[in-house]
Amino acid sequence: MIGKLDSETLGTILDRTGASNPALLTGAAYGEDAAAIDLGDGETLVVSSDPVSLAAEAAGTIGVNVACNDIAAAGADPEFLTNVVFLPDDDPEVIATLTSQLDDAADDLGVTIVGGHTEYVPALSRPLLSLTAFGRTDHHVTTGGAAVGDSVLLTKGAAIEATGIIATDFADDLRAAGVDESTIDAAAEFFSEISILDDSRALREAATALHDPTEGGVRTGLVELAAAAGVDVVVDRESVPVRPETETVCAAMGVDPLGIFGSGALLATVPPEAVDAARSRLAEAGIEAATIGTIEPTPEGVDSGALVLDGERIIDGGTDELYPFWE
Predict the structure, then answer these.
(1) Which of 32, 133, 253, 271 is most buried (CB neighbours < 10 A)?
(2) Cα–Cα dist 16/322, whole Å
(3) In whole angstroms, what is the distance from residue 65 CA to residue 194 CA?
(4) Distances from the Cα of 167 to the Cαs of 59, 179, 181, 184, 187, in angstroms?
(5) So where are the chain's domains?
(6) Distance between CA atoms of 77 and 166, rounded to whole angstroms?
(7) Does the pLDDT value for residue 311 go beyond 60?
(8) What is the pTM of this model?
(9) What DSSP element (H or E) covers 181?
(10) CB atoms within 10 A of CB 230
(11) CA–CA distance from 318 to each of 199, 224, 227 (Å)?
(12) 301 pLDDT tier (thresholds 50, 70, 90)
């Protein structure tokens, strides 16, 4: 079994949070990207942890960006990281590559790695990372803030992270499927766009909600956003941007671009009167975006909080479609 927990098991874990503290503004909750802690004087500390357990070739790059993206999706700039690294052995090349990736990615974002833990775990077949990111903000944005009538925006496109993963971890499979080298090389470069910090900076003032679609991709991200806000997120699949390289590598692997790792894109709900200004700010930052749907009230007599994708009501985002390729 790989991937996110089923809702019942996850609920058990999220309900067990130890002692209560009145400074906690947003705690452990399905769909929320980060915890929020009141520091006083209008300042909020946001904290989030994320692992990287499967993607091998760019684990350090992915790890830093995925952890920091959750901070950005809460309306803050990431400032600090702690880094836990479990290594299968003492291969100096792996260690050098991994630590260089961590250092470069953190430096690119202006984030300081302040500590963590490292040890050998021979039972592993690849490095396992877990990073915790911290940032401060005076404008905290949750996943659950979406309001009926809002428009749903998506930056960059579906499966940005997954496109890079497929092009690096599964390059031989792509070649066997007839994908040309130029497409594989272009897809591998998607890792350079995996940060959503600039996306967040452009959107956070206008957004009622922000969410980082990671495992399970845009589909799961939309399900989580709907559940957190208790609304229906109505989306037309044809409105979701999918880049040509993504379409090609996904077709070769037989996966849905909407159902695989989506880091690099940011979901935002924005009041309709603010959409044009928000998209203008994104354009000024050189970031592509599309309006992919709307927030609507949940009909009476049905489960609240669902993604309605091309008319199909979805309350479970499912398992990320890339996982079977690592088994």
Answers:
(1) 133
(2) 30
(3) 7
(4) 14, 10, 10, 5, 6
(5) 7-137, 151-326
(6) 29
(7) yes
(8) 0.93
(9) helix 181-188
(10) 13
(11) 26, 11, 14
(12) confident
Q: What are phi and psi of 57, to 5 degrees?
A: -70, -25
| 221-269 residue pLDDT tens | 999 999 999 999 999 999 999 999 999 999 999 999 999 999 999 999 9
User: Phi/psi class of residue 233: alpha, beta or left (left: φ > 0; alpha: ψ in -120 to 50)?
Assistant: beta
C-alpha 216/C-alpha 234 separation (Å) is 18
Question: CB–CB of 259/309 below 8 Å?
Answer: no
Q: Quickly tell me which residue has 């007599």 as its tokens.
A: 301
pLDDT of residue 132: 98
Q: How many other CB atoms are there within 10 angstroms of residue 235's CB atom?
A: 23
The string of pLDDT tens digits covering residues 28-51 is: 888 888 999 999 999 999 999 998
- State how far the Cα of 161 lies from the Cα of 88, in Å rounded to an integer: 24
Q: In this structure, which amino acid lies at residue 189? A: E
User: Which CATH class, in words, describes the domain spanning 151-326?
Assistant: alpha beta
Q: Is residue 138 within 8 Å of residue 43, measured between CB atoms?
A: yes
